[in-house]
Amino acid sequence: MDLKIKNQLFLICGASSGFGRAVCEQLLKEGAKIIAVARREEKLRELKDDYPEQTQVFSGDLTQEPTLDELDTLIANRELNGVLINAGGPPALSALETSMDQWDEAYENVLRWKVDLTKRLIPIFQEHNYGRILFVESQSIKQPIPSLVLSNSLRAAVAGFAKTLSLEIAEQGITVNLLAPGSHETPAIERVIQKRAEESGKPLEEVKQEMEKSIPVGRMGTGDEFASLAAWLLSPHSGYVTGQTISHDGGNIKGLFG
Predict the structure, then answer these.
(1) What CA–CA distance (Å, rounded) separates 175 from 11?
(2) Do 6 and 80 form a contact (C-beta atoms < 8 A)?
(3) C-alpha 46, offset from chain centre
(4) How far is Cα of residue 226 from the mean position of the Cα atoms in its chain?
(5) For each of the chain's 258 residues, which pLDDT tens digit applies?
(6) CA angle 228-90-243, nearest 5°?
(7) Strands (DSSP E) along the chain, which ranges?
(8) Is 231 exposed, middle or buried (0-12, 13-18, 19+ CB in 10 A)?
(9) Residue 35 β-bridge partners
(10) Which of 15, 62, 220, 243 has the highest local Cβ count within 10 Å?
(11) How many CB atoms lie within 10 A of CB 88?
(12) Which helix (H) or strand (E) holds 242?
């Protein structure tokens, strides 16, 4: 399928590894242009080396307002077609293990900057009556994950924001959706495996195998599989899909509307 995104411009957050990196590569293969954002500039440079004419890199901490201001200047009056709002998750902790400082930090890292960035980009999309906003969160929005109380709570808040926003701007050609991935072969899964190994006293590899057996398809997902769905949601083909939280989890969510 031709995604019809050749020469379209996308802002990709968390582009240095995991889901962000996979989505970057998928969009670039389709001929799109990207602004790749992450803290680790050396990883972004690898993308730039592979796709020099299509890639612009920007390194910085998006939880910091001065970084968002710099990004505003970088985008300036360019026509932006879509954004992937994506970052790592908070520490793996149970509810009783958390401190209030950790809740404050999770709010900053999981919710606040995403709201700030989105509100800054909306006028750009409104100017052209077109835009694709896609959040990458977690299956924990639909089915809480043990020992991930910070993620369970704050990612659900992102979903509430995204759904509300989608209704406010649906008539302006701007879609707002959220992907809720389950276990994938990305660096993010390592903190979950490590936490479960600590709690159970089992070796890391045994914990990983148990997690894979619990997934109906019998394995973890890949970044490429995730990126193919994300790229479609960022394309013109997805214009009738908005306000949705879409699972990508190998059938792991048990509810009827998983």
Answers:
(1) 15
(2) no
(3) 20
(4) 10
(5) 899 999 999 999 999 999 999 999 999 999 999 999 999 889 899 999 999 999 999 999 999 999 999 999 999 889 999 999 999 889 989 999 999 999 999 999 999 999 999 999 999 999 999 999 999 999 999 999 888 999 999 999 999 999 999 999 999 999 999 999 998 988 777 777 887 888 888 888 888 888 899 999 999 999 999 999 999 999 999 999 999 999 999 999 988 887
(6) 45
(7) 9-13, 33-38, 55-59, 82-85, 131-136, 174-181, 245-248
(8) buried
(9) 11, 56
(10) 15
(11) 16
(12) none
Cα atoms in the 13 Å half-sphere on the side-chain side of 228: 7
Whose tokens are 């910085």? That residue is: 60
Domains along the chain with CATH numbers: 9-182+223-245 (3.40.50.720), 186-220 (no CATH)
In the block, tokens 């602004």 appear at 35
Q: Which two tokens stand for residue 234?
A: 């960022």
Helix (H) or strand (E) holding 107: none
- What residues form DSSP beta bridges with 179? 136, 246
Structure token pair of residue 63: 């939880």
Q: 256: part of which helix (H) or strand (E)?
A: none
C-alpha to C-alpha distance for 110 and 133, rounded to whole angstroms: 16
Contact between 21 and 34 (Cβ < 8 Å)? no
